[in-house]
NAD(P)H-dependent FMN reductase (Lederbergia wuyishanensis), 83 residues
Amino acid sequence: MNIFTIVGSIRKDSYNMQLAKTMQERYKDKFSIEIANIRELPYFDQDEEKNPPQVVKDFKQSIAKADGLLLLHLNTTGRFLVY
């Protein structure tokens, strides 16, 4: 099983990235976790929406082929959120 993971922070010491990497290592024998490099993604540009850069096409393809999607993002509400 392949889980595509999007970490919503690009901060070097991001807690969410640490969590993603810990999960990737801990569960490597059970399933594969691919962590997206969102730093490479450009800002949304509606002028390029119909013909996006290759990095965007690759990102969308990774989501499409994944068996699951894990979103790790910052929470400023002070509450634990489950989607």
Q: What stands out?
A: Helices lie at 15-26, 54-65. Residues 58 and 64 are 10 Å apart (CA to CA).
